[in-house]
Amino acid sequence: MFLEVLVYLLTPLAAVVVVLTRLRLSGDGSAAGRLQISHRVLSLHTVFGGLALVVWVLFPVFPDDSLPGGAAAGIVAIGLWWITTILGLLIPARWMPARGKHAEPAAVDSWSKGPWLSMLAHIGMLVGVLLFTLAYLTAAV
User: Fold this and answer.
1) What's the pTM?
2) Domain extents for the chain?
3) Using one digit for the tens of pLDDT, what is the confidence trace for 32-64?
4) Is-contact 42 26, C-beta < 8 A?
5) 15-19 contacts, C-beta under 8 A, 24 or more apart
6) Which are the contacts of 70, defined by CB distance < 8 A and separation ≥ 6?
7) Helix (H) or strand (E) segment spanning residue 75
8) Is 82 helix (H, G, I), strand (E, B) or coil?
9) Quick check: helix, strand or coil at residue 105?
10) Residue 124 to residue 118: CA distance in whole angstroms
11) Calpha distance 67→65 (Å, rounded)
12) Rounded-to-integer distance, Cα 120 and Cα 20, Å
């Protein structure tokens, strides 16, 4: 029961991570070097996150013998969440400190403008998807 409630609480937070990542990073792309985020990665993160959310929300709502409520839908939703999470972790990984002769210096950072909010969100997303997977495998959802 606890795991089921936790999944229902974490699902809207996962949606917030996907939406806020899109809103925060979809600017004009004026950043350069290691602070620039690929628009392809950002778009794929948004598309897979949106699909994961839709399939994941429909999965427990529909009966088990229907297509959106069946086991295959749960597996597809978990797979989409994992793809979203991996793409999301690629975003803050771009901000990791680089060393070397041609490495660019780190920019001044604040909590809301730099990598820390993304790191918190995407590591939290990883933990959430691990819990989603556990909940699915144990039939909690």
Assistant:
1) 0.79
2) 2-24+37-95+110-137
3) 445 567 788 889 999 999 999 999 999 988 888
4) yes
5) 15/49, 15/53, 17/49, 17/88, 17/121, 17/122, 17/124, 17/125, 18/45, 18/46, 18/49, 18/50, 18/53, 18/84, 18/88
6) 64
7) helix 71-93
8) helix
9) coil
10) 10
11) 7
12) 12
